[in-house]
Amino acid sequence: MADNNNLVTKDYLDKRLARVEGEMAGIKGEMVKMKDEIVEMKDEIMGELKDMREEFSVHQFSHQRINDSLEEHETRLAFLEHPASSPSTL
User: Fold this and answer.
1) If you count Cβ atoms within 10 Å of the first and of the last residue's Cβ in the chain, which end, N or C, has fewer?
2) Is residue 86 part of a domain?
3) Angle at the Cα of 25 (from 21 to 31), degrees rounded to 5?
4) Residue 70 neighbours by CB distance under 10 Å
5) Number of domains the chain contains
6) Is residue 84 part of a domain?
7) What is the number of alpha carbons within 13 Å of residue 40 lying toward its C-beta?
8) Residue ranges of the alpha helices (H) in the chain?
9) Model-level pTM?
10) Chain centroid to CA 72
11) What is the pLDDT of residues 8-40, one digit of tens each?
12) 3 lies in some domain
């Protein structure tokens, strides 16, 4: 014979379901907050990465200008050190 203390009533199930739904809503809220934090962190990281790339490009351009200038100086020095005609041959 069934014991009345072990029977599950509709009222019990409704209360239990409401509690579980409340817990799930809390978890969902925490997950949304975490997602927002992750997206915000990703945006910050991407911004820093963009800045680093821009700085690197500027740095590379600066080095190219220095190298170009150095090559120009080397060419001019070579010309000055080895003139086309020496004064003794004139």
Assistant:
1) N
2) no
3) 140
4) 10
5) 1
6) no
7) 6
8) 10-81
9) 0.54
10) 39
11) 899 999 999 999 999 999 999 999 999 999 999
12) no
